[in-house]
Amino acid sequence: MWSTWPHRIAVLMSVAIALFWILTPTSQTAATQIALNKLAGMTNTQVEAFIAAHPDLGEQLINSAPKEMAKWWTSQTTSEKEHLIRTLADGLGDLDGIDYASRDRMNRAFLAETMKKTTAQVAKTPADAQAVGMLAALKAIEGALNGKHSPARHLISFTDDQPPLAAVAIGDLDTARVVTFNVPGMGTYTNDMQLWTQSAQNVYDQQGLVGGNHRRAVVAWIGYKTPPPGVDATLGDYAARGGPLLAEDIAGLTASRSVRKTIAPVVNVIAHSYGTTTAADALAQNKLGVYSFVMLGSAGIENYIAHASDLHAAHVYSGEATKDPEAAWGRLSRHDPRAPGFGATVIEVDGDARLALLPVTGHAPILHSEWNDDPLSSAWSKIKDVKVFEKQYLAHESTFGYLDNGTESLFNTAIATTPSANEDLTSGRPTTREPVPDRAGRTSSD
Description:
Elements: H1 5-16, H2 30-40, H3 44-53, H4 55-75, H5 78-87, H6 89-92, H7 100-124, H8 129-145, E1 153-159, E2 165-170, E3 178-183, H9 193-209, E4 216-222, H10 237-259, E5 266-272, H11 274-285, E6 290-296, E7 313-319, E8 345-346, H12 378-381, H13 386-397, H14 408-416
Parallel strand pairs: 3-4, 3-5, 5-6, 6-7, 7-8
Antiparallel strand pairs: 1-2, 2-4
């Protein structure tokens, strides 16, 4: 399917433009109507070329399309929706504006179909490394969804790119009062979907422990192709492509809820490593109404973003572990969001013995899960030497990533993304809360 937003628009247009006159004309700007009329007569390839040549128009369509799609989708009868879910699962499940329960059904069906085809392909050509890698990623996405979880998990986005992209929501995005997007950095692909979804589960659980609204959701978002570790992480290309995709999904959530006249959710963004670069691009270039933006182990944000206020978030936080040796390498051509004068609140992540909170010991976002911590799992069974096993397992037990359970980093991140219990969420505009300071009580503006 599609790996960048021009591809998404092409698919959206192929499904929705034929229904253009069903939509309320007065709800669209004149410019959008003209653009839609032009695009209506184009093939998907021509649409992609047209959007690539007119990026401003592309952004305008991204912002308008989810609301128009939501209006069209809600105008369909129950039987019409059921027919579309059964017949267009591979075309509609990733489109913002459709309710998330329906998207989950379509994306699960498309995942099953893609897995069946890929399994057959691997059986036929077992030496096909690309197909083998694809199947591993598909199994990881399926694994993140399987089993009993509290709350239920939903596959709100899925594409069959190489590698596939996906987003798993913990909680119900159709009703959640607080929604947090969890954005990964370099080297995190969907073959890590189970572990990345565990990091989102950790955030969800910790938010509950610090007084979070019971109607909340956290999205394990791998909705863009992250750079591999190395020089690519010092460049801005992956973020430039991924930022619009994140912005589209956040705007799509708002549009979907607005059309259905449900209370607008409070939206947070947590980002790790290069994910902070991607998310900062998304927030700086779009007014998305974000409440809290938390950057962990940042690979740096682009120099055109001069101040925290340029990110259009009510609250901006940044934390980095003393024992993180990698984050600074990503900032060779970008700046540190903890820098004095930038205006972000610097949060502590190095542990607090008084509160029994663990320190982050490296750059990883998450190292612990039920599977990773099980000495009998396949994560450890390949180590045959008992002494080597004991040494490595002991090291594993004493190392922690930014979103591991029990860390000060997770604790402070949950506080930063949890509006105070006395705040009125019905307006969707939480009041200002106290920042989460570093150990000395400093912020980057001191």
